[in-house]
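Q: Convert this sequence to structure tokens.
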Amino acid sequence: MKTIFRSKITHAAIALSFVAGFISSCKPSGSSETGSSSEQSPRPALKVRTAVLKSEQVPVFEEVVGTVRPHLQASVSAKVTGRLLSMKAVPGMKVKKGTVIAEIEAEEMKAALERSQAAYKNSDSDLQRYRKLLASGAATQAEFDAVQSVQLIANATVKETQAMISNATVKAPFDGTITRKLMDTGDLATPGKPLFIVEDSSQLRLEINVAESLANQVTLGEKFSILIAGASSAQLNGTVAEIAPAADTSSRTFLVKLDLQANPALRAGQFGRAYLPRAKRDALLVPSKAVIERGQMDYVFVADQDIARLRIVRTKDENHHSDPDAKTREILAGLESGETVILSPAPELRDGQKIITTTGATSPSKSSSQN
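A:
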């Protein structure tokens, strides 16, 4: 029994020695019983600029969708009837005013021109002969007037035929781009049947259908913010150029056309949104330079007396349709009116760190909001 009891004591002593050694190895080197050397020194106070938040009135916008269309668009048709000899333009081709884009067969018109020229030559000879007869008294004034009328009609016929031959050459009505080709070589061209669609893409407009409740608030010359999708989120301003005087009976909306400023990213047929101011509402705005973005989260440092406190906030992204110069973000949650935020916080600023505040500015009012 004594031997067994002595063996258990020995094993227990070995186990205690092992635990003590493990704890000793985990203790940081240079640590003392007081632990004063392991304590971190406090961060120095940072000098920061601050701004006081306040609730402000911001406009509420009504989004109205529309389509980008060219300011000038024309259906180019033939003025005479005939077979198409050649189609010299294709979709996407840029043309200048007066450029020949199609030619129509004009053999019959050329023959008619020869006949009219021969008739004119004969009538002019008769006129010259009767002028001499009238001077000698061998012809009456009535006879001379009749011959002169025939000569004038023959001359007009020549000019008419020449114009018809000229119309057999189809030309571009203005500088633009061929967007559609509706006929091909060999087809029969007739007046009123389009050959091409030509658009002037240098001048575009957004056409929107505005509801009756908003139509009365739209005036000629007024400017609205516009967002064009598919054009690298091109943000533009549109000026009201036309307002339909009557509503569409099926949709009860008014057609409004907004002239767009030149932008190489714009194309006819693109989808666009116009933002029409409807009313105003209260919003809590914070300067954009006070918001820290880390991943999917937004943070703001709040000055709590002389201590910086880091807050998680929920913001509304600065709307693309708002004033491009706006430098604010709307706070939806996490802050309250009257609190003081730190502007452009330094990267080394930490939560709980002491600060020395200097007043920057109150929350600016330049902002907008979407409904």
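DSSP finds four helices and 20 strands in the chain.
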